[in-house]
Amino acid sequence: MTMSRIPFPFEIKDVEENLAKELMVHYTGELTGFVQVGPKKYFFPHKYKEEAEDIYNIPVKPDDVYVVTFPRSGTTWTQELVWLVKNDLDFESAKETPLPFRFPFLEISVIIHPVFLKPMIEDSIANPRKFHVADTAKPGAVKAANLKSPRFIKSHLPLSLLPPGLLDTAKVVYVARDPRDSAVSFYHLSRTYAIQGAPKDFKTYWNYFIKGLHHYSPIFEHVKEAWNMRHHPNLLFIFYEELSKDLPAVIRRVSDFLGKEITQEQVEKLADHLNFNNFKDNTSVNHVLMKNADLAVEGEAPFVRKGKVGGWRDYFDDEMVEQADRWLKENLADTDLRYPSWELTDFPTKDRKNSINVDYMRTPQGRT
Ligand code: A3P
């Protein structure tokens, strides 16, 4: 049976040439230009254009599991959690096979510019290694088609740019994080990998970030799309801050969501495996492929970096704190989305006393 192809429903516009040139001075990984997609203006490197419709048309299978996030929200942490729960805590295989091969990044080929990808492919042919980053960078739809089921797929695309039948067919875990912490973390990642690139100073980066002029932005639109679907039985919405505060509780919720039994002993073992100090030394998850390919800039931050909630405070001057407050308020005015780490004094979260808001966890099935 051949499925009819769905036309990509959004307009993809090139970012105006002068602005693109300005951005490429900082975002050294892009050499051609950028696009903005649809009314929310999701921002991507130019190559997204080539893959948008193919990704949108990826056939979804009922046993697929997706982890979807805005970058630097705890994706890797959650992927490892999900993969281990679903694979009966097979720590041996998790150690042996790097995460990008167990749980590939769907649209990484959009992010790596062809000029940088070419030598990576040549290197992987000339020096066949068991695991090479180039082998993870096939076009998203090709990669998805080649994966064995059950498929584990990581994507940073917002739900609206993923296959439209995704939620009604497969399971999706969405992770959100305080946007200020995501911004700082994304800045460091982009500095570490020249195939991405970022301005030297965080403030310049931040000013692009809040204008939606960085990969996958605008962050609030991205998160709100998932937040609005949080009661869908196939979507589990979690916060980085919850993982940080009570990892065993999140492990139990993920197990429940995936329909897997888990004992208290297993929860403890998994929580220990996922603990920041163990995680940062775990080469299967801490971007060893990028390091092997000499892609990490010497002296910049590692992929698993600080793992803190609220670390953004060390990067923001008074002007940025105020700017961030305004930005948060404007973007949250039309939604009941609130982050567990909220501390804005004049925000209606004042009386939450920093506790985790569990209201959003209730689903029609009564899952908590
Ligand atoms: P920081 O840069 O703030 O430290 P992603 O996987 O989406 O790219 O997210 C990366 C962020 O998650 C980084 O944040 C990283 O340090 C943090 N992280 C990864 N593993 C973690 C863990 N086990 N515990 C706490 N934070 C973790």
Textual characterization of the structure:
The chain has about 375 residues and is α/β, with parallel strands linked by helices. It has one domain: P-loop containing nucleotide triphosphate hydrolases (Rossmann fold), CATH 3.40.50. It contains 18 helices and 7 strands. The protein has helices at about 15-25, 50-55, 75-85, 90-95, 100, 110, 115-125, 140-145, 165-170, 180-190, 200-210, 220-225, 240-245, 245-260, 265-275, 275-280, 290, 320-330, and strands at about 10-15, 35, 40-45, 65-70, 150-155, 170-175, 235-240. The strands form 2 sheets. The protein has a 4-stranded parallel beta sheet, with helices on both faces. A 3-stranded antiparallel beta sheet has the order 1-2-3, with no helix packed on it. Strand 2 and strand 3 (about 40-45) form a beta hairpin. Helix 3 (about 75-85) crosses helix 14. The termini are far apart. The model is unreliable at about 345-368 (pLDDT under 50). It binds adenosine-3'-5'-diphosphate (A3P).
**Envelope shape:** globular
Major beta-sheet overview: 4 strands, parallel
From the 3D coordinates, which CATH architecture would you assign? 3-Layer(aba) Sandwich
Heterogens: adenosine-3'-5'-diphosphate
Oligomer: single chain
CATH topology: Rossmann fold
| SSE pattern, N- to C-terminal | EHEEHEHHHHHHEHEHHHEHHHHHH
Strand order of the largest sheet: 5-4-6-7
The count of domains is 1
Tally of extended strands?
Answer: 7
Roughly what percent helix? 40-55%
* Average pLDDT figure: 90
CATH superfamily: P-loop containing nucleotide triphosphate hydrolases
Uncertain segments: 344-368
Determine Rg (CA atoms, Å).
20 Å
Tell me the β content. Answer: 5-15%
Note the total helix count: 18
Based on secondary structure, the structural category is alpha/beta
Q: Tell me, what is the CATH class?
A: Alpha Beta
